[in-house]
Amino acid sequence: MLIGKDDLGEIFDQIHNTWIQYRTAVIILCAADCDAICTTKILTSLLGAEMISYQIYPVLSYEHVAHYTDSLQSKIVDGELHSIMMVNCGGIVDLHQMLFVRPLVDKFHSEQQQLKQNKRGRRMRSGNDLDDDDDLDDDEFEEDDDDEDEQVNEEQVARLNEYVTQHMQQIDARLKIYVFDAHRPFNLSNVYDQHKIYLLQGDDEQKMNEFPEIIDADDEEEAAQLSPAQNDENDDVFDDDDDDDDDDDENMHEPMRKKRRLNTASLQPQSGSRVSERGRHIIRIQREQSEYYKLQYYALHSSGIAYLMARSVHKDDNEMLWSAILGLTESFVHEKIDRDRYNQCVTLYCDEVKRRNASSEQEVSYDSRPENIENSSIVTHRNMDHIQFGMEFSFVLLRFWTLYDAMYYSRYIATKLAVWKQSGRENLKYLLAKMALPLNEAQQPYCSMKRAYKQKLAQLFQDNLDQGLDDNLMYGSFTKQHGGHAALSAADMVYAITAVLESDFRVKSNDHFQVMHEMNTNAQQQQQQQPQSTGQQTQVAAAASSAEQQPFFDDNAWQSNFFYGYDVLAKDKPYLLRDAIELAKKRQHEIIDMGIRLIEKRDIHTMTVMRWCKIENYNIFQSPMLLCKLAIFVMDAFRIQTTKAPKHFVLASFNDKSNSYTVVGLPAKREYGDVQKSPFYNAFEEARKRVNATAKIVFFEGHVIQIHKNHFMEWLDNLHERLLSFAF
């Protein structure tokens, strides 16, 4: 069911009323990305304001979602669970099947297998009691079993349907699932669910009457019977994405048109025209669904939806607004949305900032050096949480780096000036010289630069846009006083949180104050006697402890890092932010250095409509987020250096532990910041089916997949064929 902006308040009232009546905790399944963490921060603050208890479960993939929901099945059946929030996960899959039907089917098959084993055991024991002349060998038992399997095969399906229907009736009808997910397109089963699933979205998205119709099970069976020319590799022959690709669009679509004519003719029954019309109707729906699912993209950031919900019930505050701004910024700097969409949201948030910060617009002095965040001058209480709009450079962590390094290690400058070349590095120095900015000033910490240079820095850059720069040099953004200590830009916070989430080791603070804080927190938790607290930080810590016990991987560092990133948002923990910023600088350094290495070594291979590259022996780039940022940098570098048509880019990183490649795919783009809808979700899957490759979805992003080493090259060739229809 779709929920628009005007109904968000009613949804929260529904959650609140459910809590008052049943006192069952709200379960929050949260993806491990910055926007999801910001969304969860808003939701937990909102729930905490009403004293609603909650539990946070971080998830990396739908395997994790299935694991948690399997463990919650008893609570679901017993009516002990009434509200589940899914943050940046769940929107693009059939939740009814994944959360309810699949566990029941697995349980049914497990029970049937156990019954079969018990039956065979009884027969074997009975056979052992017979005389030697009457003994039955194993082959006879096997033949008997095969005969029985053939007899009950049809009954098995009927029993399964009856089993699922019976147990579905036992699931509490009051259970509701609230989905805050920026991934699009939504799964149509979720859209048309009118009882349990609520898809929360902004007002500028598709309306209910704009979605394709959904086909029920009877229609699917009839379509299968009416379509004898069906492709064996895909059940939907009318899906444009499922036809073989040729070298050009004309050749590619011709066989498809012939297939449609053949299948349409086969839908003409001898008994009359009614079924024929129904068959054509099914074909039309299948084609509409094919077009609907063809490309993936991002909608309004989930934290923005959560903030709208908070405002609808008059519970919003500056911290929630800041979290929503961070979610928007994360979508922009990681190229999930384009500049136009970003500017539209910035305009709306400017109004919110003015409304909430009108009385605290005086200038604040601070020391922004990383080592002195917690020792910076304390501002007045009125200005402690002040948010301010301003123009930001497209540099990385400028306030915490030198100007030279912030420029050199930013994707914008590195690609515009081609810093992997000697001439590019000279051009960077020449740009600074032309701006009359001494190199020694640019190479010392930005906070130590002379005020005169910093005040006119923006104007100096604007006057020298002819040196290979353009209007993407700056963009509108926001800064905030972090806990009354230092001002940070929204991008600074995003880079810091993301750096923690994409680390392959457990991030820990080096500050001794953190040790004291953890000791005090542990002592307080030991004093608490109630097993279930209200929605406060202790609930988060409890969820973190339980999550670390889940046997997903040998190393649960990512779960610890999730809660570290969650705590970075806390204004009373500046030491966490300081260490996260230092880690972000290191990560950006590694991205640019690796990108330059790949370009210099000419490790990028060019095909008709895509480029691809694989990385060996660099485990750090197993993180899909880090690998994606590296891919964006390399693709931008090639786009600027060539006048040919842009190409898609596929980047793979080898994991020696799993003997597989983590692969990300990015759609071709025409210019810096250009954001295109992605064909990779379907292309990855179709290529995998064609070669029967061993693959695994390891993230919620449709453009990320894990492919076994032995299948990689064959899969890559088939992927290129699938992408031929998406060339510029």
UniProtKB/TrEMBL annotation:
<keyword id="KW-0539">Nucleus</keyword>
<keyword id="KW-0131">Cell cycle</keyword>
<feature type="region of interest" description="Disordered">
    <location>
        <begin position="220"/>
        <end position="280"/>
    </location>
</feature>
<dbReference type="GO" id="GO:0031261">
    <property type="term" value="C:DNA replication preinitiation complex"/>
</dbReference>
<dbReference type="GO" id="GO:0000727">
    <property type="term" value="P:double-strand break repair via break-induced replication"/>
</dbReference>
<feature type="compositionally biased region" description="Acidic residues">
    <location>
        <begin position="129"/>
        <end position="153"/>
    </location>
</feature>
<dbReference type="Pfam" id="PF02724">
    <property type="entry name" value="CDC45"/>
</dbReference>
<dbReference type="GO" id="GO:0003697">
    <property type="term" value="F:single-stranded DNA binding"/>
</dbReference>
<feature type="compositionally biased region" description="Acidic residues">
    <location>
        <begin position="232"/>
        <end position="251"/>
    </location>
</feature>
<keyword id="KW-0235">DNA replication</keyword>
<protein>
    <recommendedName>
        <fullName>Cell division control protein 45</fullName>
    </recommendedName>
</protein>
<dbReference type="GO" id="GO:0006270">
    <property type="term" value="P:DNA replication initiation"/>
</dbReference>
<comment type="similarity">
    <text>Belongs to the CDC45 family.</text>
</comment>
<feature type="region of interest" description="Disordered">
    <location>
        <begin position="115"/>
        <end position="154"/>
    </location>
</feature>
<feature type="compositionally biased region" description="Low complexity">
    <location>
        <begin position="524"/>
        <end position="541"/>
    </location>
</feature>
<dbReference type="GO" id="GO:1902977">
    <property type="term" value="P:mitotic DNA replication preinitiation complex assembly"/>
</dbReference>
<dbReference type="InterPro" id="IPR003874">
    <property type="entry name" value="CDC45"/>
</dbReference>
<dbReference type="GO" id="GO:0003688">
    <property type="term" value="F:DNA replication origin binding"/>
</dbReference>
<feature type="compositionally biased region" description="Polar residues">
    <location>
        <begin position="263"/>
        <end position="274"/>
    </location>
</feature>
<feature type="region of interest" description="Disordered">
    <location>
        <begin position="521"/>
        <end position="541"/>
    </location>
</feature>
<dbReference type="GO" id="GO:0003682">
    <property type="term" value="F:chromatin binding"/>
</dbReference>
